[in-house]
Structure formats: structure tokens, C-alpha cells
Design a protein that fits this description.
MetI-like fold; mainly alpha; globular; disordered C terminus
């Protein structure tokens, strides 16, 4: 590459102020200029107003038994909560820690096993012919249907919960990785073979980068389904965790705690998805430069 071409390439990857395209500061400035975050805040505000009107002000039928936002917020911010769960109680953070640890283990296993499997399924037709039918038969089975077998197969209480969360995330990561490889233009494979690339080089330099966007889409989906599968598993066989907290609060008629745990689930799940998106942007910097 000539010196002029190199300078042009470097300048094209920077903004007028000299900031690298795709950097954290650049993305933050782009987000502030976009109406998306403001519309999101407005949507949350409108939902809160609707929640208040239906539960506390108008007390409409089917909503009158539900806790309102003021009641939930009062319980959550109380140093002496009525039902024993608030932002000041260690038990609340203990439930978050247990659920987060389980999801990390399950999602990590699903990523380590599912992504390579999906890449090879999309790359090698013969390998896909053997494995794809098995996955397609197992994938539609609901996670709750696996609960009895998981309890019978796995020792203790933690292994069945992690297995159920892993199972849901595994299918999402595997299939998205496979679809990512299948979406790569065949001309890239032909060009690599014509240039004398070995199969390993093709896999490393064509398959993996080409499938990366779909892989990270699958990871975001996978971490989401891992969370709601985990909650279902904790309701059945857990002793700690946000899912257990929701079910235990329902049994004890502690309805504000149910909402607190549900909102916490949404926030923690959002943080997990945001981390995956951030990692994906770092590993796929060329997409940010192309958009710019």
C-alpha cells in the first residue's frame, strides 16, 4: 500500500475532530445526537404513568390487586422494608449474585460449545447433515420439559439449574453461528482456495470474520433466553436467585417484591446484552467505519 493510500485510509477512520471512528467517545456523541435514547426514556415515562393510573389512581379491574409504582418504590428504597427486600438489604444482592453466576456459567458453556459447533455446521455440509437433525428435534422441546430429567441426571441443586439455562442458550448460539457462515458469499471461499489457502486459513480468515455479526446476534439472543430459562429453573429447584425470589414472594403474597425482582431481572439482563454488544463492536471495528 502506498503512503498516500495509507494516509487516506487512516484519515477516513477518524472524524473531523480527530476522534477514531468507533471509539467509545465517538459512539457516545452519536448516541446523544440520535433521538433513540430520548424516545426510550419517553417510553419508560409513559409506561410508568400508565402503571400508576391503572393500579393506584383509577384502580381498574384486573389491576387493582397489583402493586403500584409508588408502593414498589417505597419498598425498594426503604431501610426497613415491610417484606424484607430492598436496595439496603444484603439478601437482595445475594439473589442477584446467585443468578448472575449461574447465567455466566451457563452462557459461557453455551458460547464455548455452541459457537464452534455452529461454525463447523455452516462450513462443512457433511457435518451439518449429521448434527442438524438432532438439534432440530431437541430445540422445540420447552425448557420446563427438561426439568425432571435434569434433576435425575445432575447431582445437587446447582447443576440442573445451570444445565437448563445452558440448554436454551446453546441452541440460539449454535444456529446463529451456522446461519452466519451460510450467509457468506461463496466467492470468498473460491478466492481463498485459488490463492492457495489451507482449510485452517479459510476457517480463520473467511469463516470466522464473515460469521461474526451473526455470532454476536446469537450471543445476545442466547444470554436473553438463558436468563428466562434460569428463572423458570430457579422457581422449580432453586434456593437462591431472582427466580426463586419471585416465586417465594408470590407464595407469601409479597407482591411488591415480585415487581422488584422482575425489574431487577430486566436491568441485569440489559447489562449483559450491552456488554456483549460492546465486545462485538470492539471485535468488529470495520462495521463502525463502514457505517461512518
Amino acid at each position: 500500500m502506498s503512503g498516500a493510500a495509507l494516509i487516506a485510509r487512516q484519515s477516513s477512520s477518524r472524524t473531523a475532530t480527530g476522534q477514531p471512528v468507533g471509539s467509545l467517545s465517538w459512539r457516545f456523541q452519536q448516541a446523544l445526537k440520535s433521538p433513540v435514547p430520548y424516545l426510550g426514556l419517553l417510553g419508560i415515562l409513559l409506561f410508568g404513568i400508565f402503571w400508576f393510573l391503572t393500579t393506584e389512581y383509577l384502580k381498574l379491574p384486573r389491576f387493582e390487586k397489583l402493586p403500584g409504582p409508588i408502593e414498589v418504590w417505597t419498598e425498594f428504597t426503604s431501610r426497613d422494608p415491610t417484606y424484607g427486600t430492598s436496595m439496603y438489604t444484603p439478601e437482595y444482592y445475594k439473589h442477584i449474585a446467585w443468578s448472575s453466576l449461574r447465567v455466566l456459567i451457563a452462557f459461557g458453556l453455551a458460547t464455548v460449545l455452541g459457537v464452534p459447533l455452529g461454525l463447523f455446521m455452516g462450513w462443512k455440509r457433511t457435518f451439518k447433515d449429521y448434527t442438524f437433525p438432532i438439534i432440530e428435534v431437541l430445540r422445540p422441546i420447552p425448557v420446563l420439559a427438561w426439568v425432571p430429567l435434569a434433576i435425575l441426571m445432575m447431582p445437587g441443586r446447582e447443576a440442573p439449574i445451570i444445565f437448563l439455562a445452558f440448554l436454551a442458550a446453546f441452541f440460539a448460539t449454535t444456529l446463529n453461528a451456522m446461519l452466519g457462515v451460510e450467509s457468506i458469499d461463496e466467492s470468498y471461499f473460491r478466492a481463498a482456495r485459488c490463492l492457495g489457502s489451507s482449510p485452517w486459513q479459510i476457517f480463520k480468515r473467511v469463516v470466522v470474520p464473515g460469521a461474526m455479526p451473526d455470532v454476536f446476534t446469537g450471543l445476545q439472543i442466547g444470554v436473553g433466553v438463558a436468563w428466562f430459562s434460569l428463572v423458570a429453573a430457579e422457581m422449580v429447584s432453586g434456593e437462591h436467585g431472582l427466580g426463586f425470589l419471585i416465586w417465594d414472594s408470590y407464595v407469601l403474597s409479597q407482591y411488591p417484591v415480585i415487581v422488584i425482582a422482575m425489574v431487577t431481572l430486566g436491568l441485569v439482563g440489559y447489562v449483559y446484552s450491552a456488554i456483549i454488544r460492546a465486545v462485538g463492536r470492539m471485535l468488529m471495528g470495520w462495521t463502525a467505519r463502514t457505517q461512518a
